[in-house]
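Entry 12.
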Amino acid sequence: MATTDTSREKKTERSLLITMAIVVACVAVIAVIGFVFMNKPADIIEGQVEGTTVRISGKMPGRVMEFFVEEGDTVHAGDTLVHIHSSIVDAQLTQAEAMKEVAQAQNRKVDAGTRKQIVKAAYDLVQQAAAAVTITEKTYNRMENLYNQGVISEQKRDEAKAAYDAAVAAKGAAESQYSLAKAGAQKEDKESTAAMVSAAGGNVAQVEAVLEDSYLTAPFDGTIDQIYPQEGELVMMGAPIMSLLRTDKRWITFNVREELLKDLPMGKKITVMIPALGEKEIEAEIYYIRDMGSYATWHSTKAAGSWDSRTFEIKARPTEHVDGLRPGMSIIYK
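Predicted 3D structure (tokens):
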């Protein structure tokens, strides 16, 4: 009886072992078949949408008086964004304008020439010199005749000649002074005052150019991305006031290992999926490929049978406008 029970237990164990062996063999066969015939999953590359963002800043330091936009607003080129006031720059403009008035007054004075009284006095001296020439000339002629007649000595005749020559020289000097008085200031003086006026005008224009930035405007169509200061705060020259996101410039950026570059040449059109737009698929054209450097190298973990792989950055532009496409959205490329 005991022998029969032992035999039955052995048969049962043998049956279980055979069944387990068959199950294991079936699982192994199914796994091999699945490994051989199942499709390899496609490589998925994830990237994101990028856009051009410009920081709006000005040349004028001052206080933020008023914002005309808020974050998220859509603006067009030329729209006024913010008003910045600077009492210092206003004072500089007043000073520059005053200096310009001084230079212009000096220039007008030089252009007006010599006073009329001085010109009249110089003219009178010319007339006096001319009269002296006439008298001394007549005296000399008389002395010459008397000398020829032997009435006077040669010395008397020479004295009359010297007096005549001196009168002629004095007349020439008087005429030169009269000409200078009529001509007014020298050419160099006129050029100097004209240059002063030009320099003063340049100072005014420089301050006015700074004051133009008291009202900053949008350089292009876009969306106000971020505003940095608050109304009433002081800002320095060149400090960013806000950032403007350009609406007409969008591109896609993703990184790939170098062994995938053969399938992504320059100019190729690819199809990517935008999860944020309801998994919408769009077409984009590759226009930029750049090595990201050694810091982005995929290092091999095996001593043999593998190699290090560098990473490349790829950029692509959508081939047509996509509504709702915003920077920061993820993209999927298979």
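Annotation: Residues 2-37 form the longest helix (36 residues). The mean pLDDT is 78.
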